[in-house]
C-alpha cells in the first residue's frame, strides 16, 4: 500500500482484516504452509486487493512478526531498575502469562519462526532482542549484588520466565488435554508467583 498518504478508514479496516486472517493461517500452518490465496479468502478480500496492501506473503509475515515482537518485549522494556526487584520480576511474569492467555496465536506464530531457525527475524533477535536482554540482565545483576534478590543467572532467569509463561500458549492443546475442564489460567498465576518468589527471595 502506498505510504505517502494517510490511510482511509476502509484501508485501515482492510489491512486489519488481512493481518488477522494471516495471523490465523500462519499460526496454524507456519510460513511454508500458508498461502496468499488462503489469507485473502479468510480476510474476505480478493488476492489482487490483498496484494495492494502487502506485496507478498513474506511482507505480511514480517509485519506480523514485527508487531508481535514489539508487543512481546514491552513488559521487559518496562522492568524498572529503580523499582522493588521482586515486585518488578513477578509483575513481568504475570504480564507474560497474561499475554499467553490473550495472544495465543501470536505466541505460536513466533514459536513457528524460532523453530524454523528464525530465517526472517534472526537479525532482529541477535541485535535488538540481545541488546534488551543484556540490558535487563545487568539490572538483575545489580539487584543481586545489592542483596535484594537471591543469586541467579540473569539470562537463564529470563529464559525461564519465557518458557514457563509461553508454554501455556504454545502447548495450549496439551495443557488443556491434561487439565480437562480446568482453566489453566486460574491456577497458573499463583503457582508461578510462588515458584519465582521462592527462587528469588534472598
TrEMBL record:
Matching InterPro entries: Homeodomain-like_sf (IPR009057), HTH-type_TetR-like_transc_reg (IPR050109), HTH_TetR (IPR001647), Tet_transcr_reg_TetR-rel_C_sf (IPR036271), Tscrpt_reg_YcdC_C (IPR013573)
GO biological process entries: negative regulation of DNA-templated transcription
SUPFAM superfamilies found in the cross-reference section: Homeodomain-like (SSF46689), Tetracyclin repressor-like, C-terminal domain (SSF48498)
Keywords: DNA-binding
DNA-binding region range list: 35-54
GO MF, one example: DNA-binding transcription factor activity
Signal peptide: none
Domain HTH tetR-type, first and last residues per copy: 12-72
Protein name: TetR family transcriptional regulator
Species this protein is from: Marinibacterium profundimaris
Amino acid at each position: 500500500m502506498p505510504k505517502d498518504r494517510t490511510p482511509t478508514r476502509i484501508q485501515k479496516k482492510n489491512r486489519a482484516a488481512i493481518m488477522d486472517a494471516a495471523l490465523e493461517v500462519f499460526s496454524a500452518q507456519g510460513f511454508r504452509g500458508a498461502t496468499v490465496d488462503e489469507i485473502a479468502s479468510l480476510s474476505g478480500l480478493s488476492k489482487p486487493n490483498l496484494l495492494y496492501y502487502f506485496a507478498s506473503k513474506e511482507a505480511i509475515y514480517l509485519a506480523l512478526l514485527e508487531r508481535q515482537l514489539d508487543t512481546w518485549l514491552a513488559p521487559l522494556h518496562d522492568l524498572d531498575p529503580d523499582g522493588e526487584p521482586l515486585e518488578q520480576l513477578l509483575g513481568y511474569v504475570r504480564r507474560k502469562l497474561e499475554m499467553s492467555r490473550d495472544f495465543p496465536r501470536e505466541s505460536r506464530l513466533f514459536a513457528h519462526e524460532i523453530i524454523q531457525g528464525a530465517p526472517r527475524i534472526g537479525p532482529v533477535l541477535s541485535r535488538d532482542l540481545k541488546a534488551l536482554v543484556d540490558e535487563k540482565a545487568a539490572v538483575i545483576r545489580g539487584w543481586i549484588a545489592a542483596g535484594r534478590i537471591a543469586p541467579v543467572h540473569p539470562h537463564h532467569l529470563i529464559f525461564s520466565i519465557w518458557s514457563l509463561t509461553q508454554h501455556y500458549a504454545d502447548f495450549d492443546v496439551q495443557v488443556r488435554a491434561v487439565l480437562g475442564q480446568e482453566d489453566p489460567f486460574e491456577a497458573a498465576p499463583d503457582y508461578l508467583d510462588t515458584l519465582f518468589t521462592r527462587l528469588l527471595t534472598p
